Amino acid sequence: MSQRNGGGAIRIALAATSAVRRAGLESIVRSHAEFQLAGSFEAMANLVSFARRTELDVIVIDSDSIPDLLFEPTSDAAIVLLTEVSDARSISRLLRSGVRAILSRESDPDDVVSAIYAAYDGLVLLNTPTAESLAAVYGDQLPEVEEDLSEEITSRETDVLRMLAEGLVNKDIAARLGISEHTVKFHISSILDKLGASTRTEAVMLGVRRGLIPI
């Protein structure tokens, strides 16, 4: 799902029982040229039926009802969920059912937009309370090599780092990799964190020292 639909818009359907919240989500989607609102529903059943017969990229759901959310996958669309559900067990079930981004229902519009881009590009995005809830339950199950793994640069991050070394800006990196600029920002933030760098230039220097960037 990393390539735009032939350069077209990201096709989005949404559902929210509250008319006010549904209108707010519709406004967010319609305010971005790269988004196309394919459908908007009050009832989850109507959304599921629509998704079964419509090609979608992202589904945005505003709900606290776990039973409604644990439906059988109806398409390849990534799911963005706005909810106040935060217990680790429920979150784990939601992630296994296809949810790729979880935000508070009171999240800013910019956060919703970022979550849509992240989910579309195959990333998992969790708000802080959700991530902390999972860490509190599953943190002690991490392998003993946790410290080493936390510093590992992924192959995609290595690609981004090497493009930074070439002097490419976010827009050019996004075009070359077929991902959104939002996703490029996520990768760069992760790279800086893993390398312990404060700037892109420092990240490139550290990347050279670690042998991540050929010279």
Secondary structure blueprint with pairings:
Layout: E1 10-16, H1 19-30, E2 35-41, H2 44-53, E3 58-62, H3 66-69, E4 78-82, H4 88-96, E5 99-103, H5 109-120, E6 125-126, H6 128-138, H7 146-150, H8 155-165, H9 170-177, H10 181-195, H11 200-209
Parallel strand pairs: 1-2, 1-3, 3-4, 4-5, 5-6
Helix pairs in contact: 4-6, 8-10, 8-11, 9-10, 10-11
Description of the structure:
With 215 residues, the protein is an alpha/beta fold. The protein folds into 2 domains: 10-139, Rossmann fold, CATH 3.40.50.2300; 143-209, Winged helix-like DNA-binding domain superfamily/Winged helix DNA-binding domain (Arc Repressor Mutant, subunit A). It has 11 helices and 6 strands. The chain has helices spanning 19-30, 44-53, 66-69, 88-96, 109-120, 128-138, 146-150, 155-165, 170-177, 181-195, 200-209, and strands at residues 10-16, 35-41, 58-62, 78-82, 99-103, 125-126. A 6-stranded parallel sheet has the order 2-1-3-4-5-6, sandwiched between helices. β3, α3 (66-69) and β4 form a beta-alpha-beta unit. α4 crosses α6 (128-138) and α8 crosses α10 (181-195). The radius of gyration is 19 Å and the shape is globular. The protein starts with 9 loop residues before the first strand and ends in a 6-residue tail after the last helix.
Mean pLDDT score: 83
Tell me the number of helical segments per DSSP (H or I, 4 or more residues long): 11
Q: How is the quaternary structure best described? A: single chain
Give the termini separation.
32 Å
* Biggest sheet record: 6 strands, parallel
Q: What is the CATH class of the largest domain?
A: Alpha Beta
Total E-strand runs: 6
CATH superfamily of the largest domain: Response regulator
Second rung of CATH, namely the architecture of the largest domain: 3-Layer(aba) Sandwich
Helix content: 40-55%
Q: Provide the succession of SSEs.
A: EHEHEHEHEHEHHHHHH
